# Entry
Amino acid sequence: MRLSFSSFRSPRTRAASAVFAVAAITGGAGALVALPGSAQAAGTTQCQVAYSVTNDWGSGFTTNVTITNLGTPWTSWTLGYSYAGNQTLSSGWNGTWTQSGKNVSVTSMPWNGSVGTNGTVTPAANFTYSGANAAPTAFTVNGVLCGGPSSPPPTSPSTPPSSPPSSPPSSPPSSPPPTTSAPALHVSGNHLVTAAGTPYRLLGVNRSSGEFACVQGKGMWDGPADQATVDAMKTWNIHAVRIPLNEECWLGNSDVPAGGTVGAAYQQAVKDYTNLLVANGINVILDLHWTYGQYTGSGGGCTDTIATCQKPMPDAQYSPTFWSQVATAFKGDDAVVFDLFNEPYPDAANGWADATEAWTCLRDGGTCTGITYPVAGMQSLVNAVRATGATNVIMTGGLTWTNDLSQWLAYEPKDPTGNLMASWHSYNFNGCVTTSCWTTNVGAVAAKVPVQAGEIGQNNCNHDYIDQVMAWADTNGVGYSAWTWNPWGGCASGGNILITDWNGTPTSTYGQGYHDHLIAQHP
# Structure
């Protein structure tokens, strides 16, 4: 969040439980079912479909449908199938889902319609049902039958299925669903995927205070960071927690005011909380939020040098060292994601005069117009992380407090591991606040690389804006984490507050709306 505060106000899945496969290809495919000759004519669709129920809680389920194109390339696709029971569509993503009676249809999105030979696409959806939940027995793609059913043995789930209710409750459940450790993640095309190759979205919250409490004499966190609070998160179906950090506290710099939590103590607190979340099935995004360097220009909230407020870019003096140490601490744990810098705004710093210069500053750093300290660009921070041998997924943002991704692809840093994704923030007071803007500005990026909305929110008590953001993100395969999981007084503090206490009680409108949406989702 791009506002700065001096007290407790900070600037801003399950694996398959059952799998069913259906295929249609020419001969030589082993156990896959061949189509009748009429369906093999030249130019017709040839496809393989794997239908997976990834979470079934008795009154509803989540399904992933992986479609493989075994014929000529597609410019668009439409999947069709039918249920035998009363399965009823409630929400879908990675495609436009519709249902008429027992018949389900999924059409491609603008960003995933092109599928080359042997390429795949994986639309997914939530359904409700009662009674039996039999898998579909036939699938079509673009009107051509893919074949009969083939049912290999179910894969062993990496985590037990959760138990969300058939309709969202008005308050959190009394006990959290069971989980195991959060999945290791890597980038595949424009998706985050698990080690098994299953697409996975990071849906969750921000837990603020690690960026500011340490420099304000308030210890480390503004409240407990224990099992009970993690259990409260799990009742919301939270699968990701973004933790904002302060580089000077991590590094133990001597200019941090007395009474703060710095150095080894700060590092251990971050490690302990991260490890606790991961052990409970929650992926962690570590975010460099507040950095060193005096800034007095446009968009700045304070004029200090110490990392007690938000700067327009990371500093070359400390930020690469910070990321080298963080990467060393967490390499080997690919359930942890690195968000290199919270909300860059070098375009505001140069007076909005030169967008090309601002994008170059973002990537390359150095001497940037309007910024009086040496700047670390995103490329240097990527290099610092990868020099340690860490393969963790890395997030990098755009301009205008990372609300602008319009040229992200043109200025994308180079990552030798290919594990790079885009960071996007969306609040109702930003410049890009409509679905048409998101489709143009963010959708083109989401078609190429994974996108995570690291912060979403609105500066009032409602949830109408974030509802629009989430609906668009769900359709376009984008993850999100709302600001913020801290009980700071709700509406009295300007909105963006999800909870009224550490038990996870939602604020009456904003928090309740987000809670109810998460309960119905799957990463």
Residues 202-519 form a domain with the TIM Barrel fold (CATH 3.20.20.80). The CA atoms of residues 491 and 515 lie 17 Å apart.
